[in-house]
Design brief:
With 117 residues, the chain is α/β, with parallel strands linked by helices. The chain is 44% helix and 15% strand. The protein has helices at residues 9-20, 37-40, 57-67, 81-86, 88-106, and strands at 2-4, 26-29, 48-51, 71-74, 114-116. A five-stranded parallel sheet has the order 3-2-1-4-5, covered by helices on one side. It starts with a strand and ends with a strand.
């Protein structure tokens, strides 16, 4: 199981829930904020995780192929409305191009993958 944005609020909670059910989780995210739930719960290193921008298609594709997930929860996004007003280009890039990169990367897998976004 792969979670993009695993260091965010929803990603951290979903990781904890899946772990409590014995499900192996892999995470891909940007480095977490110091004030994040992920950081407060000292989650670094608790699962296999990579920290990079999903707008990097080649890096994302390489990691998706390595993980070969059957299910992807796609939570990597810029979700803060005020931040999107301050920096609309980065918001668009992350939310649209990042999602397109994820879907493109999944196309290279030989097995079917379910994406929940």
């Amino acid at each position: 199981m792969l979670i993009t944005g695993h260091t965010g609020f929803k990603g951290t909670w979903l990781t904890l829930l899946l772990e409590s059910q014995g499900i192996e989780v892999v995470g891909i995210s940007l480095e977490p904020d110091q004030s994040s739930l992920y950081t407060k719960l000292n989650r670094r290193g608790k699962i296999f995780e990579k920290f990079f921008d999903i707008c990097d298609l080649e890096k994302l594709k390489t990691n998706i192929l390595q993980v070969n997930p059957g299910v992807v929860f796609h939570f990597a996004a810029q979700s803060l409305v005020l931040e999107s007003f301050r920096d609309p280009i980065t918001t668009f890039k992350t939310n649209i191009i990042g999602t397109a990169n994820l879907l493109e990367s999944i196309n290279y897998l030989s097995d079917k993958t379910t994406v929940v976004s």
